[in-house]
Amino acid sequence: MTELLIHKQAQVEALSSEKATLLFRIEAVSRMLDESKSRIEISGSSSRDKESGRPLFEDRIRSSRSQKCL
């Protein structure tokens, strides 16, 4: 019976380790997904600016800087 308990404990520890590894991987993939969503939102707003004829954010910064220099 002691051998069975040792075997079961080893299984529990292995499963706990695997669970921790999988949770770590899930968190990493979730962060990557969030970053991708942010990039998509940023590029989507840039394309909307181009389509509407409004200058992009970077262009606005450049134009305000050049006006300050004058």
UniProtKB/TrEMBL annotation:
GO biological process: Golgi organization; retrograde transport, vesicle recycling within Golgi
Localization: Golgi apparatus membrane
Keywords annotated in UniProt: Coiled coil, Golgi apparatus, Membrane, Transmembrane, Transmembrane helix
Entry keyword Membrane: yes
Disordered, as annotated region: 38-70
Entry's Gene Ontology cellular component terms: Golgi cisterna; Golgi membrane
Keyword Transmembrane found: yes
Compositional bias annotation for Basic and acidic residues: 47-62
Domain of life: Eukaryota
The protein, known as: Uncharacterized protein
Organism expressing this protein natively: Prunus yedoensis var. nudiflora
